[in-house]
Write a structure and sequence with these properties.
It contains 15 helices and 13 strands. By secondary structure, it is an alpha/beta fold. The chain is globular, with a radius of gyration of 21 Å.
Length: 379
């Protein structure tokens, strides 16, 4: 199988979608798939994808000419995306020839994958959320060989909105690289990071976006007992205040870290936090955060928002839930987790065993099988 992975993304990128793309490319290559990653020409670093993400092998990559106005508002983004659509369409028409060629894409926006319905090349699309019933999406879902949905709620929405048969939909949440997310002893990690050894550390890891509901942490810090430190990796105090409009006094900000450093910081934590808010549909229903699977692999206690999206991954035997957008509930859950040593051991063991099913390698194998079946059938 010759697979062209089309992504309207800057690669490498510090954002989560860049990590996901890189890890899936690596896993597909490990599967023996002849893969080429096709992206717009908009690098921001001299590091290769392999170097940036700490991959085991290089990822073959083609960077196509496209307008680089992605940061110039909605119009600039659209024009840049359209130029990339033209470039990759011409590239595929020239290079994707033969019965064994297939295209794989991911929904980083609502229009970049539109030409695939017209090119006559077998394609599969990975969907990270529900989609409106527009003409573009109806044409796409009529022609697509198969959809890989990252959570069951997305799958249900696509089935209902587009009358898709269940056979053309596969649910595959995100994954984790166990060779990278391999926990170290907590105190040893703290020594390496020059952190106090005696504290109880509840740690949030993630970039600062409004849809994540970060503002709850500004209230939680006022409700936690003094022996619990609330720490954040992903940005500065000033960035937090700009996004949330809230005072962050009492929270410890460790700054932004490169992806390969995250396992060491997670090792140093007692509790790892996963937020979710009702005020954003993506956060509440559709997200499949990589950090959840990474936390499960790290064998640290997880405190997570009880959203439909997160409940599709975790259950009460694997984490401590809190009620979304309820600071008192989150503070109580963190405090509870900090004091339940035996219960936490059971939860972390359960979570780790479940996480073994969600390695990037296992995900790629299942998707490869799904694609092969559909390419050889008339579904």
């Amino acid at each position: 199988m010759k697979l062209f992975y089309i992504a309207n993304a800057r690669m490498p990128s510090e954002k989560a979608h860049g990590i996901q793309i890189a890890k899936m490319c690596e896993a597909f290559l490990d599967e023996g798939i002849d893969l080429t990653l096709v992206v717009p020409k908009r690098k921001n670093t001299d590091k290769t994808v392999q170097e940036f993400y700490g991959l085991r092998q290089p990822v073959p990559i083609v960077r196509l000419a496209a307008l680089n106005w992605y940061d110039r508002g909605r119009i600039g983004y659209r024009l840049s995306t359209i130029s990339f659509m033209i470039s990759y369409s011409l590239y595929l028409l020239h290079h994707a020839k033969g019965e064994k060629c297939v295209v794989y894409t991911v929904d980083l926006d609502h229009i970049a994958y539109a030409p695939l319905a017209l090119l006559g090349i077998p394609f599969f699309s990975e969907m990270h959320g529900g989609k409106p019933g527009t003409m573009v999406h109806r044409a796409l879902f009529k022609k697509v060989k198969g959809i890989i949905a990252t959570n069951p709620i997305t799958r249900t929405q696509l089935e209902e909105n587009f009358s898709m048969s269940a056979e053309r939909l596969l649910v595959e949440p995100n994954g984790v690289d166990f060779s990278m997310f391999n926990p170290q002893e907590r105190e040893a990690a703290r020594t390496m990071l020059n952190l106090p050894k005696g504290m109880t550390l509840a740690l949030y890891v993630g970039r600062f976006f409004d849809w994540k509901g970060l503002e709850i942490l500004a209230d939680v810090i006022k409700l936690l007992p003094p022996h619990i430190t609330l720490g954040i990796i992903g940005g500065t105090r000033e960035e937090f205040t700009k996004i949330t409009g809230r005072d962050s006094g009492g929270i410890v900000f460790y700054g932004e870290k490169i992806y390969t450093e995250v396992p060491l910081w997670a090792s140093a934590a007692d509790i790892l936090l996963v937020l979710g808010t009702k005020r954003d549909e993506q956060s509440y229903r559709y997200t499949s955060p990589m950090k959840v699977f990474e936390y499960m692999a790290m064998q640290r206690t997880i405190v997570a928002s009880r959203t439909p999206a997160l409940e599709s991954i975790l259950d009460k035997d694997e984490c401590v839930f809190y009620e979304p957008d309820n600071a008192q509930s989150l503070a109580e859950s963190i405090t509870e987790a900090a004091g339940e040593l035996v219960e936490n051991s059971v939860r972390t063991g359960n979570a780790y065993r479940k996480a073994r099913h969600y390695s990037w390698s296992a995900r790629a194998k299942r998707i490869h099988t799904f694609m092969s079946q559909h390419l050889s059938s008339n579904l």
